[in-house]
């Protein structure tokens, strides 16, 4: 395989990931962009809802199906670029969603003052948690960089290992926890934002179910014991700490 390909493809995936992550954060605030989750209406409600549902379905199918081992086995992609291809595909699909999203409907709730500030702080915390969760495992392996030879391993643990410490001692899926907070923590929730949040929450539930199934197959009773003491999404006081 050309060495240049091993360098360029993973780098594009990582840069794309960083770009769409920041883009999505701003998109969900409803500010700073010409097109946001609750921006100006451009089409009728029926067309908007149909478009948005299609975009959410596209993302859910791509993100879930490409993550399954059976699907990976059918791809004719070199192992060193397998993860990078997944990251790149996710970048493209999410960018399409952000560009083509069609706001619709009216306001569901709106708060100001200290409650609004509190929700913005919660939103920021969700963003930080979601990003930190990628570093709670091996971030460079998760992004496909390490598989292509970008970095040598130095104390980082593989994404294929069972993680039970750090953030994973509080919840089994800290990334999903962070994402749920980001889609729901807002001082101004419109109808189209509600659809986005609901669709994302449904995807998280389905994606977590598949991931739990794979983890139980991979780690057996070790994962069962871990799951018995640490909640999946919502932390509880003392979850897994000191155990």
Description:
The protein has one domain. With 243 residues, it is mostly helical. The chain has helices at residues 3-29, 45-65, 69-74, 79-100, 114-136, 139-142, 174-184, 191-219, 221-229, and strands at residues 107-110, 188-190. It is built from nine helices and two strands. Helix 1 (3-29) runs parallel beside helix 4, helix 2 (45-65) runs antiparallel to helix 4 and helix 5 (114-136) packs antiparallel against helix 7 (174-184). A two-stranded antiparallel ribbon has the order 1-2. It is 63% helix and 3% strand.
Per DSSP, what share of the residues sits in E-state strands of 2 or more residues?
under 5%
Number of strands: 2
Shape: globular
The sequence of SSEs as H and E is HHHHEHHHEHH
Distance between the termini: 46 Å
* Main sheet specs: 2 strands, antiparallel
Low-pLDDT sequence parts: 239-243
Number of domains: 1
Question: Radius of gyration from the CA trace?
Answer: 19 Å
Mean pLDDT: 88
Helix residue percentage: 55-70%
What structural class do you assign from the helix and strand content? Answer: mainly alpha
**Spatial order of strands in the largest sheet:** 1-2
Number of helices: 9
């Amino acid at each position: 395989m050309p060495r240049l390909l091993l360098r360029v493809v993973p780098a594009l995936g990582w840069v794309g990931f960083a770009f769409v992550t920041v883009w999505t954060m701003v998109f969900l605030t409803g500010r700073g962009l010409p097109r946001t989750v609750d921006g100006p209406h451009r089409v009728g409600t029926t067309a908007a809802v149909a478009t948005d549902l299609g975009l959410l379905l596209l993302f859910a199918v791509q993100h879930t199906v490409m993550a399954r081992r059976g699907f990976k086995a059918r791809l004719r992609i070199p192992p060193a670029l397998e993860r990078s291809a997944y990251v790149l595909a996710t970048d493209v699909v999410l960018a399409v969603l952000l560009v083509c999203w069609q706001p619709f409907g009216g306001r569901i709730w709106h708060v100001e003052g200290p409650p609004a500030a509190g929700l913005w702080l919660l939103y920021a915390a969700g963003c930080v948690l979601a990003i930190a969760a990628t570093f709670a495992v091996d971030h460079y392996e998760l992004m496909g960089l390490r598989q292509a030879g970008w970095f040598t391993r130095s104390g980082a643990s593989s994404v294929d290992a069972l993680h039970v410490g750090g953030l994973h001692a509080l919840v089994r899926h800290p990334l999903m926890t962070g994402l749920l907070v980001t889609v729901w923590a807002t001082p101004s929730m419109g109808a189209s934002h509600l659809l986005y949040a609901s669709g994302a929450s449904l995807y998280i539930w389905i994606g977590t179910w598949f991931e739990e199934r794979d983890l139980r197959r991979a780690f057996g009773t070790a994962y069962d014991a871990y799951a018995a003491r640490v909640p999946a999404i919502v932390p509880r006081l003392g979850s897994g700490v000191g155990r």
